[in-house]
Amino acid sequence: MSSNLNTTTACAASRSPTAVAVLLAVLALALPELSLAQVGGISKSTSVLEQLRDWLWLLIPIVCLITGGILGALYSMDIIRKDTFYTWVGGVVFAGVIAGGVIEVVF
């Protein structure tokens, strides 16, 4: 029983670096200028970071709207209850605010 638990924990820990590597690969494909920022110097990297910031400012509200729509559909089909709906909506709004703050501070 304990060896099965250790194997599950080890598998979960080994997936985390893979997820980070996949995320970085997708980012490099989406914005190839970011990975080639060394070629153009500081002005090139600044413009790439501004492009990333604009892209994130577009992406985050779309993700929040899709999440809100899914939550509304789940609530209307009585799959989730009102208190769960309010909790998730509050979490989505809070996560959007935090993500916006991080984008504003970092980029």
Please tally the β strands and state the result: 0
**Class by SSE composition:** mainly alpha
Task: Write down the overall geometry.
Answer: elongated
β-strand amount? under 5%
Distance between the termini: 48 Å
Low-confidence parts: 5-13
Overall tally of domains: 2
Profile the largest sheet: none
Helix content: over 70%
Helical region count? 4
Rg is 19 Å
Instruction: Output the helix-strand order.
Output: HHHH
State the oligomer: single chain
Mean pLDDT: 75
Overview of this structure, please?
With 107 residues, the protein is mainly alpha-helical. It folds into 2 domains: 1-30; 39-106. Helices cover 92% and strands 0% of the residues. It is built from 4 helices and no strands. It has helices at residues 2-30, 32-35, 37-76, 82-106. Helix 3 runs antiparallel to helix 4 (82-106). The protein is elongated. It starts with a helix and ends with a helix. Residues 5-13 have low confidence and may be disordered.
